[in-house]
Amino acid sequence: MHTTVTLLAGAPAQLLPARELMAFTLASHIILVPLGVALPLITLVMHYRGLRRNDPVALLLARRWSAVMAVQFAVGVVTGTVLSFEFGLLWPGLMGKWGGVFGIGFGVEAWAFFLEAVLIAIYLYGWRRLKPRTHFLLGLPLPAAALLGAFGILAANAWMNTPQGFTLDAGGKPVDVHIWSAIFTPMFGPQYWHFVVAMLITAGYTVAGVYAVGWLRGRRDRYHRLGFTVPFTLAAVFTPVQFLLGDSIARSVFHKQAVKFAATELVWRTDTHVPEYVFGRLHPDGSISGGIKIPQFDSILAGFTPGTKVTGLTSVPADDRPTATQATIAHWAFDTMVVIGSLLILLALWYGWCRLRQHRLPTSPWFFRGAACAGVASVVAVECGWITAEVGRQPWIVYRHMRIAEAVTATRSTSLWIMLGLVVVVYVFIFGSLLAVLLKMRTNWRLDDARRAVGERTGEPEADTPYGPRARVPAGDPPPDGGTGPGPAKDGRP
């Protein structure tokens, strides 16, 4: 209760439900984002391997992953559209005043979305209907379309962190907008690449985790081995790169958003030789309780020397900085993200040692247990990254130009609470449906694998190849679509 009062002191009544609604929808949507951004690339890597080595197992995996890609994209359309509406509904002050400056990012994301939808449809249609090389080439633009969508969203968010590309007239309204300057802000580069690599890592570990679970349950065939190895290798290679990018973005925040950096690191007063706290809690009087204190380490991290001066929260008035509670939330989110990243590096090094020095997969069950958990841990790290970025910027929705309280809707708080309840119910249904569809697909694929194994033992031709017609139904047997006699396969081909 004390925390709620602290966060809402002097704020309009509708601010809390508006923030809760936005936070819930964003946290839900971001679960789907890694697969939306990175799964096309992972699928095409597997597709290329299948074509290059004439490997039917790799092609089968690519085809199945493309189906998952389409399903999650469809759900992402719903959750992403809700977020788009919420920007205008919940934050009319932001969009009304600043939409003409940074709204180009949302326009780019919308075009990328339509392009990606068309490309996914073509890619799915191409299995069995196009020549292998033609089909693969038509899929190549998919990762670029996904990255373009991320470009638009990150451009808008980076602008909110470091706004530029405009001047203010006498009435305080932005004029003389320079689009390129508004897009390529000082925080855009660090945020974009940190985000993209995070998506690739998260998607790689998530996909590999599915096959790691199968491995732990005794499924040691080539299908599970290849399904694990390709995405996990991609994620493992980029994990140390992400650690360096994370250090880069933290240093950018130190230079461009000093107060946010102070909140993230629980720095109360500007000073040198500032200690680093691993977790811990900041109190309104500036004291810190709990956590692990490492003397001088925060100054070393910020500027490589203990004498580096780190700006503290008290360098600005209390109304212009995060509260002690908000700073603690941002700090815990940041530290959680760093801890998860460090554990993933250890897992990647374990994998790399076995692959490069011993030329095999690790054999320890503990490795595969870690790999099975890595996907979920990566999603948690992504969530923590957004919490750090957004909570650390408080109380600003546009850094040093507009407060969140100035942007919030005038809609009654009761209506917003009701809307939050409805959204929660709808999202539970949506994600429950997504899980049910994925489980049904898994069941069908296992049945296909069982039929394929029987066909291999009896010498019958394979009935479900990624390129080529399905097996014809023998005369006298009911066709798979429930008809009354022999006919074409399910996809309409004879």
TrEMBL record:
GO cellular component terms, semicolon-separated: cytochrome complex; plasma membrane
Keyword Transmembrane helix listed: yes
Subcellular location: Cell membrane
Major place of residence: membrane
Segments passing through the bilayer: 25-46, 67-89, 101-124, 136-159, 192-214, 226-245, 329-354, 366-389, 416-439
Pfam families: Cyt_bd_oxida_I (PF01654)
Keywords, in A-Z order: Cell membrane, Electron transport, Heme, Iron, Membrane, Metal-binding, Oxidoreductase, Transmembrane, Transmembrane helix, Transport
EC number: 1.10.3.-
Disordered: annotated segments: 453-494
Single GO BP term: aerobic electron transport chain
InterPro entries, per database record: Cyt-d_ubiquinol_oxidase_su_1
GO MF terms held by the record: electron transfer activity; heme binding; metal ion binding; oxidoreductase activity, acting on diphenols and related substances as donors, oxygen as acceptor
Membrane topology: Multi-pass membrane protein
UniProt family annotation: Belongs to the cytochrome ubiquinol oxidase subunit 1 family.
Name of the protein in its database record: Cytochrome bd menaquinol oxidase subunit I
Gene name of this polypeptide: ythA
